[in-house]
Design goal:
This protein is mainly beta. It contains no helices and eleven strands.
Length: about 120
């Protein structure tokens, strides 16, 4: 499956952005989807993941209550609504997909497919 992320940009602290990720070339509903991010000079980290149907979603503690992850299986799309952004959210954001439910949802190594990053920059 191919993943194409979009929606990044520059926003002031306290603002909002919505990221999108379009999937093609596979059966979208058979993949667990996730977002990871890589802050400048740091390793890539887990942000959120959602189940095949979108009925179960997991969030990193740092974004819980501020970010909302959703998926539309009819459109082969996932979305990451990011509210109350702060400078610590500055990072390249990557969408990812994996077929197996047995591997850790928050581990980068579990994911088989990755989109290109979309940059989010939050100014103070």
């Amino acid at each position: 499956v191919q993943l194409q992320a979009s929606g990044g940009g520059l926003v002031q602290a306290g603002g909002s952005l919505r990221l999108s990720c379009a999937a093609s070339g596979g059966t979208f509903s058979s993949y667990i989807m996730a977002w990871f991010r890589q802050p400048p000079g740091k390793e890539r980290e887990f942000v959120t993941a959602t189940s095949y149907s979108g009925g179960t979603t997991y969030y990193a503690e740092s974004v819980k209550g501020r970010f909302t992850f959703s998926r539309d299986n009819a459109k082969n799309m996932v979305y990451l609504q990011m509210n109350s952004l702060n400078p610590e959210d500055t990072a390249a954001y990557y969408c990812a997909a994996k077929g197996s439910s047995r591997s850790d949802y928050d581990a980068e190594r579990s994911y088989d497919y990755w989109g290109q990053g979309t940059q989010v920059t939050v100014s103070s």
